[in-house]
Amino acid sequence: GVTHLVDTVSFFHIPPVMTHRRAVFLMILATLLWSIAGVVTRHLEAARSFEVTFWRSLFNALALLIALGVWRGAGLWRALLSGGWALWTSGVCWSLMYTAFLVAMTMTTVANVLVMIALGPLVTALFSRWILGHRLPRRTWLAIGAATSGIAWMYGGEALGGASFLGTLVASVVPVAAACNWIVLQSVSSRGAMKGEPSVDMMPAVLIGALLSAFATFPLAFPFQASLHDVGLLALLGVVQLAAPCLLVVRLSRELLAAEISLYGLLEVIFGVTWAWLWGGETPPLTTLTGGAMVIAALFLNELLGLRRRQRLRTGE
User: Fold this and answer.
1) Residue 61's closest CA among 190, 268, 223, 235?
2) 84-128, pLDDT tens digit by residue?
3) Amino acid 161: pLDDT
């Protein structure tokens, strides 16, 4: 697993020219990897709550230390020491994203957490407009509204029936931290492009986030109950479900707008429901299927209209 991660990191460090279509495909791949967490944790024998987050973050950090260490050598430590505010801000955001989701799950319903996360694209779009001055096309705003409505349709009724104010507040940390992270990544990439200089490498921020998350959840993970079977599954999550896709998304922040990253990230919910259906024995209700169809249709139409616009620009029509 770590060997494949090293290959992935190396591939995305000095990439060829990437088309928007390829960037979207890779973003969907990253979302697909993120989405396996639910179905994998269904097969845990004893590990629960903060212990799950601790082991997953620990293996995430170990995988990143090996992969980035092999790739960078001593340059990794120089990057950590001289990365500046952007690198460490992004690292804190990754840490909050890793941990707040699970904490919220222990305080309120899964449905309520997912509905809050569905606000991520809207929060990101607003931050992009206010902080970076990005003017999103109308089609993207419509896609954000339709996709958010789809998630709300899937889980809104359950959320209203089991909401907890404190749990909702913790859950809201996830979309806000994600939005801040995408904005920081976009800002660094844009600043480098404007100056004609290489952008600050933000991949070590993923390692910072993993280490902070592991340290924060370590005292809360006691008493340890995970079996060897559980540790193996959590190692899989740390490498495949966190390390690889998070590094990939950092690379894609140079190609996709922050709002696009957040918007396509909603597919994590759809993929997660699908995995639970296929391998977790959970049959989704009709509202889940119709809401999921709304999300997929919104993303498809947004990309289709964007493709047509790019074709018209190329042909000068």
Assistant:
1) 235
2) 889 999 999 999 999 998 888 777 777 778 888 888 998 999 998
3) 60
| pTM (2 d.p.) | 0.85
Is 82 within 8 Å of 235 (Cβ atoms)?
no
Instruction: Verify cis geometry, omega within 30 degrees of 0, for the bond prior to 175.
Output: no
Chain centre to alpha carbon of residue 223 = 29
How many C-beta neighbours within 10 Å does residue 227 have?
12
Cα(98)–Cα(224) distance, rounded to whole angstroms? Answer: 19
- Residue-level length of the chain: 317
For residues 57 and 238, the answer to whether their CB atoms sit within 8 Å is: yes
Q: Specify the amino acid at residue 162.
A: G
Which parts of the chain register pLDDT below 70? 1-17, 157-163, 191-199, 313-317
**Alpha-carbon distances, residue 110 vs 20, 241, 269 (angstroms):** 33, 19, 11
